[in-house]
Amino acid sequence: MHHSIIKSITAFICLALLPQFSSADEAMTVNIKRLKLETAMRIAQAAIAQCRKEGVQIGVTVVDRGGHPQVMLRDVLAMDITIEISKKKAHTALAFNAALSTLEGRFTKPFQVAKIDPIVISAGGIPINIGGTIMGGIGVSGAPSGETDEKCAKAGLEAVAADLEMEGS
Fold first, then answer.
1. Of residues 127 and 6, which shows the higher confidence score?
2. pLDDT (mean) for 54-80
3. How far apart, in whole angstroms, are the C-alpha atoms of residue 51 and residue 45?
4. Which helix (H) or strand (E) holds 9?
5. Of residues 166 and 14, which shows the higher confidence score?
6. Mean pLDDT across 127-147
7. pLDDT at res. 18
8. Which residues pair with 141 in a beta bridge?
9. Is residue 162's pLDDT more than 90?
10. Euclidean distance between CA atoms 109 and 66, whole angstroms
11. Rounded to the nearest 5 degrees, what angle is found at the Cα of 133, between the Cα atoms of 153 and 70?
12. Residue 25: phi, psi to the nearest 5?
């Protein structure tokens, strides 16, 4: 009889400790939100529309959270190089989670991070950060100033921000 009581107590202790080891709070995977293609396209088209209002034609790239191009558009008269530059701006804004205009002048010493090939520290790139979740980056190139490039990138984000925020809540 004594042996069965010890077995019961041991079983009870094991069951009491079990939730600590298999807690739902400690999942082995994470859910990652990604932009749908249609959302990335809306961003790019809104950026082009804003730049057209400014009287300039640009290239725009929207990268996903991994820094991979999801949408790349070049307006009819924008130079070919705008696509490569916009891609690098989008990637850099994502990597630093900051508008590139806030990074200008930050990397001035030789051999710093600004010298890495896919990095461009020039206004016109912003992260897609909704409610603390980084979903990608937007890069715009082709306007006479980085300030205008950034204005167009922000217009792209504003075109979807409210919908993304609603979906996240």
1. 127
2. 95
3. 10
4. helix 2-21
5. 166
6. 91
7. 53
8. 59
9. no
10. 28
11. 50
12. -70, -15
Q: Which of 24-33, 118-127, 139-148 shows the highest mean pLDDT?
A: 139-148
What whole-number distance in Å separates Cα of residue 147 and Cα of residue 109? Answer: 24
Give the 3-state secondary structure of residue 72.
strand
Cβ–Cβ < 8 Å for 90, 72: no
Q: Each residue of 54-72: b (16+ CB within 10 Å) or e?
A: bebbbbbbbbbbeeebbbb
List, in order, residues 6 or more apart from 148 with CB less than 8 Å away.
51, 54, 56
Token pair for 167? 């979906």
Mean pLDDT, to the nearest integer, of 43-63? 96
Q: Which domains does the chain have, with CATH numbers?
A: 37-168 (3.30.450.150)
Per-residue CA distances from 29 to 24, 26, 94, 127 (Å):
11, 9, 23, 25
pLDDT at res. 51: 95
Q: For residue 34, what are its two tokens?
A: 């990604």
